[in-house]
Specification:
Length: 328
């Protein structure tokens, strides 16, 4: 208990340091003193504008969405007992993106709020569809789920590409967040997705103890008094809400859930009551740092956070696939 509490405190410190680095680093480097003055005084200097209007909003969004996607990936890994599970790999993010594109095409997506609702529907349909398809074909084995999810993600991605390439107006609305980025996101974005994120995170916290029981097997969990169907439903809704918030705010960001889940599990073991908060902190730190690295690599421009995470996440995915035991 004491070791895990200390580790959680260290993760929180990492998030705080990453937050400070995000405010200070970029195409123009600022000292911590200049950052503090900008946050406290906001006198209107160039540094004040950079910190308060540009870097602070995107960093807040990165914390919120990183936590959402980190927890979503951990929940998926727990419910599927699959170390490869992650919203991007399992097609959940692709389903959310396709729903948003369809909403853009028919004109129902006009704000971040309506984008979240479309993304939520797409995320839930994709999650349910992948599990049903895998159960019919392979008995929902870990590898079967991964392969089914990859196939569904490819199909949904192809459908999304076909729609945006054939419709210039939809393409204009889609390309802003298609790569996965926190660039240009203001505090209004965080405010609009916050209710969905909070409900998703609360449901994930409620679902954590149920996941610990489900890890013993559905029959054992039912014998201990757990309603397996209710636990699965709560987890499904939480995954959908968290993924929808992430996709609506920042676009499809792959591998973040995989990275956060594995780092948290390495430190805290398999107890989901510890894994859920640890994954939230790990996901937040990872997205902030990916954004900072992208800014530093891009020079006058920037490399999007989704690209940076892809460069890290793709090798991690290969490593996990090559391990002998891919089930949790």
């Amino acid at each position: 208990m004491a070791r895990r509490t200390v580790a959680l405190a260290v993760l929180l410190l990492v998030v705080v340091v990453a937050f400070a680095a995000s405010l200070a680093l970029g195409s123009r480097w600022l000292g911590l003193g200049a950052v503090a003055r900008a946050l406290v005084d906001g006198g209107g200097s160039d540094a004040d504008v950079i910190v308060r209007s540009l870097r602070l909003p995107r960093t807040v969004v990165a914390v919120l969405i990183g936590a959402c996607l980190g927890v979503a990936g951990t929940l998926m890994q727990g419910h599927t007992r699959n170390a490869l599970a992650e919203p991007g790999i399992f097609g959940v993010s692709s389903g959310a993106a396709l729903a948003v594109v369809l909403g853009l095409q028919v004109g129902v997506v006009e704000s971040v709020g309506s984008t979240v609702w479309c993304a939520l529907i797409g995320a839930l349909v994709a999650t349910f569809g992948v599990q049903r398809l895998a159960a019919r074909g392979t008995g929902a084995s870990p590898v079967g789920l991964a392969l089914t999810g990859a196939a569904v993600a490819a199909l949904l991605g192809a459908m999304t590409s076909a729609i945006v390439l054939l419709d210039a107006d939809t393409l204009d609305g889609y390309r802003f967040w298609a790569v996965g980025s926190v660039s240009g996101r203001g505090l209004d974005v965080a405010v609009q997705v916050l209710p969905f994120a909070v409900v998703g995170l609360v449901l994930a916290a409620i679902n954590a103890r149920d996941l610990d029981l489900l890890a013993l097997g559905d029959d054992v969990a039912a014998g201990l008094g757990l309603s397996v169907r209710r636990a699965r439903f709560v987890g499904l809704v939480a995954i959908g809400l968290l993924t929808a918030a992430g996709v609506a705010a920042c676009g499809p960001i792959g591998f973040l859930g995989l990275l956060a889940g594995h780092v948290a599990r390495r430190i805290f073991g398999s107890r989901n009551t510890w894994l859920i908060p640890a994954a939230a902190l790990t996901g937040a730190a990872a997205l902030i740092l990916a954004d900072v690295v992208g800014r530093l690599l891009g020079g006058a421009g920037e490399v999007q956070a989704g690209v940076v995470l892809g460069l890290v996440g793709a090798p991690l995915f290969v490593v996990v696939v090559r391990r002998r035991a891919v089930a949790l």
